[in-house]
Design brief:
This protein is α/β, with parallel strands linked by helices. Helix content is about 50%, strand content about 10%. It folds into 2 domains: about 110 residues, Resolvase, N-terminal catalytic domain (Rossmann fold, 3-Layer(aba) Sandwich), CATH 3.40.50.1390; about 110 residues, no CATH class. It is elongated and about 65 Å long.
């Protein structure tokens, strides 16, 4: 008796640029879905999920897309490590946006395949490697910029109002950081809150660090979340 091999699991990512789904983009989602399903069947992949960004421009930042964010949540919550798209342009039309998104998935050990068989995460293409290095440098610049911004904001607060700690000060310094910290605290594959240490690690991974460029401590995460009394002196 032959043992049936388990098929590799994959998820589909679909993007449509027209809210009305008319003209050149008419039935785009159906076409993309058919192409992805056909490729998965030929190559022996088992599609276990589909994530869609409807009416999203190919130039829109990856991090602003709800469908892509849900895709990352799914990947981080289980062992799926293959994403299939119709073609590279449906992932993103602008090359830098495309490579930033692909780099995000590469860092999670994910392959991005097109329905025509191209591996967008292949590192043997020198031009793609170069773009990812540029993207990596951009992430490093953004990280350094955030560190400098936090340091300058804290110095201004100390000068005008003394040292402040707690939810209010962090909300004033960096509302995006507060929002992202709360989201990470709530999100857990098991339906429970993530630990403060885990939240700190996830913040560092996406570029949120303290004024010294280091990962936040659990107590700092607690302060960002506004747990405990706010005090200023």
């Amino acid at each position: 008796m032959k043992t049936k091999l388990k098929r590799v699991e994959a998820v589909a990512y679909i993007r449509t640029s027209s809210a009305a789904n008319v003209g050149a983009d008419k039935d785009s989602d159906k076409r993309q879905r058919a192409a992805i399903e056909g490729f998965a069947k030929r190559l022996g992949f088992s599609l276990v999920g589909e994530f869609t960004d409807a009416a999203v421009s190919g130039a829109d930042p990856i991090e602003s897309r709800k469908g892509f964010t849900a895709l990352l949540d799914r990947i981080e919550g289980n062992s799926v490590r293959t994403v299939i798209v119709e073609d590279a342009s449906r992932f993103a039309r602008e090359l830098m946006t495309q490579e930033l998104g692909i780099l995000t998935l590469i860092n999670r050990g994910v392959r991005v395949l097109t329905a025509s068989g191209d591996d967008l995460t292949d590192s043997s293409d020198p031009s793609r490697v170069m773009m990812r290095q540029i993207a990596g440098a951009f992430h490093q610049y953004e990280k350094a910029r955030l560190v400098a911004k936090l340091r300058a904001a804290r110095e201004r607060m100390k000068e005008h109002a003394g040292k402040c700690e707690g939810r209010k000060s962090w909300a004033e310094l960096n509302p995006d950081l507060v929002r992202e910290t709360r989201r990470l605290r709530r999100r857990s594959p098991k339906g429970h809150q993530r630990s403060l240490r885990h939240v700190a690690a996830e913040l560092a991974r996406i570029g949120y660090v303290n004024e010294h460029g280091m990962q936040f401590s659990p107590s700092s995460v607690q302060s960002i979340l506004g747990i405990g009394q706010t005090r200023c002196h």
